[in-house]
Amino acid sequence: MGANEGRGRTAAARVREVSTPELYRRNPFRIVGLTAAATRREVRERRLRVLGVLEVGGAVPDGVPADATVDEVRAAFDALGNTEHRLVDEVFWTWGMPADCECPLPLHRAHDNAVAAYAAALDAEADRTDDHPTPLWTEAARCWTAVLRSESFWRHLNHRVEKLGDRRLDESTVDGLRTALPDALLAPLIEVATRSAEPRRFTGYLALFGADRHAVEDARAAIADGTYRRVEALLKELRGDLDGNRVQAAAERAIEETAPLLDRLEEVVPRAEFRRTASLSESIAVVANNIGVALAEVRGGPASLIREVFAVARRCSRDPETLEAVARNEVAATADVPAAPPGREPSAARIFGALLHAVAATMFLAFKLPEEVFPAVMFLGAAPAALTNCVVAARPWTTPGRYPALLGLDFVVYLALSPVELPYGVAIAVAAALLYVAPFVRVRRSL
After folding, report:
1. For the chain, how long is the longest CA-to-CA vector?
2. What single-letter DSSP state applies at residue 380?
3. Residues contacting 347, CB < 8 A, separation 6+
4. I want to staple 285 with a disulfide (CB 3.0 to 4.6 A). Which of 52, 107, 317, 345 is the partner?
């Protein structure tokens, strides 16, 4: 690799390194409070003045961000001392009025407007401002597109290479920047979109920066990469559950987890346009179909769950053969599945038993508690207890004999404790246990 080619690659690598959502907030010129046109002498003088104040615990000088630490400021000055880094940092910071570069004034204004709009858009996305990001992204894209298309911009960078006077910089450095900058401008946007709950909103901004169709497609695929990997991991886990005979767990996960992930992919990389999305959707359809078949083979498998998992398969596939197989398997899987037993209708006898259960506790407390406490306990406990037990009596799993059994338990416990002196708290605890705990205990009979 020749020296010139290496310089271009070094510049491109530096551009990619700094192209994050913190691109502008961490720019060294911003941190030290200088414009990109600052001379080396101005940088040295500023360094002595700013660090001299900060290192003795003085107030943050004007132009330096209030949240900047001494180490951050020192690192920023060090970066400005590296001409390879400084040239890239100049691209992403304000230039001010043309001085000795002989640039047309509109170029500097367009560049500085692009920097300001892009920085404001990133701040708005990070909730650092109340500005709506859409106009900011539009303005940043408009200005940056015009700047990159202007030969005056590249002549300015060549001028800066000469002005910096470093043997590591030459025209190939600018060529490296010309190659890397279009993608670098999309990189912070891609990262913000990847983190967002609404990635679709950002896909419209991508094309505004003048990138070609392939670059925009690559950017959308990059936004979706994390979701792609989560879908692939889910597929692997579902297959593992299926192989491990954890069929019902696999069905529940397929129903609950696939839809949000596929919806997110469809927003950014729709399967009609992206082969990877289409392939993953078909893979989920096949796995869901296999789960449905396996679930039907489990004795007593819930019919509703079987139908839901087959619905996932239908929703994910667009392949006619797959859809035909799914329909055929669903018919076979649900043909012999027994319907769920109808719930028992609550009878008047069960409701009456529940009310008697609450009345028994009330009478016990009336006998055990002093008159001044009893009304409060009645108000706070008796009415909720009666309502709770009526609800329990109406549940399908409540057998006809449950409340007769509870009334018998009331008779034994309350009668046994009637002659015994009990602290008030113990009496209330006994009644609460019989009212709120005993009705929910399920007794399984062995066959």
Report:
1. 107
2. I
3. 400
4. 317
Q: Which amino acid does the sequence have at 232?
A: E
Residue 277 and residue 270 in contact, taking contact as beta carbons nearer than 8 Å: yes
From CA 221, how far away is CA 77, in angstroms rounded? 37
Give the distance, in angstroms, between the CA of residue 392 and the centroid of all CA atoms in the same chain.
40
Name residue, tokens 């998992």.
309
Amino acid found at 151: E
Q: Which domains does the chain have, with CATH numbers?
A: 3-211 (no CATH), 214-335 (1.20.120), 348-440 (no CATH)
Total length of the chain: 447
Task: Quickly count: other Cβ atoms within 10 Å of residue 441's Cβ.
Answer: 8
Q: Is residue 360 exposed (0-12), middle (13-18) or buried (19+ Cβ within 10 Å)?
A: buried
Query: What is the mean pLDDT of each successive set of 10 residues along the chain, which is 447 residues long?
Result: 72 92 94 92 93 88 89 94 93 91 92 95 87 90 94 95 90 93 93 90 87 89 95 95 91 93 94 95 95 83 86 94 92 67 55 78 76 69 73 66 77 79 78 74 42
Q: Any idea what DSSP says for residue 347? A: P
| Residue 223 burial (10 A CB sphere; 0-12, 13-18, 19+) | buried
What's the CA gap between 94 and 112, in Å, rounded? 5
Please enumerate in sequence order all residues whose Cβ is within 8 A of that of 198, keeping only pairs 6 or more positions apart, or say none. Answer: none
Amino acid code (one letter) for 164: L
Provide the CA 153 distance to its chain's centre, in angstroms. Answer: 39
What's residue 380's pLDDT? 65
Contacts of 18 (CB under 8 A, 6+ apart): 26, 27, 88, 89, 92, 184
The CA distances from residue 336 to 218, 293, 299, 312, 332, in Å, are: 49, 12, 11, 21, 8
* Tokens matching residue 234: 């889910």
For 96, other C-beta atoms within 10 Å of its C-beta total 12
- Within 10 Å of residue 113's Cβ, how many Cβ atoms? 18
How far apart CA 108 and CA 114 sit, in angstroms, is: 10
What torsion do the CA atoms of 57, 63, 66, 72 make, to the nearest 10 degrees?
A: -70
Measured distance CA(189)–CA(21) in Å, rounded: 7
Residue written as token pair 């009645």: 378
Q: Are 8 and 173 in contact (CB under 8 A)?
A: yes
Unique residue bearing structure tokens 């008779």 = 411
CB 211 within 8 A of CB 241: no
Residue 306 near residue 300 (C-beta atoms within 8 A) = no
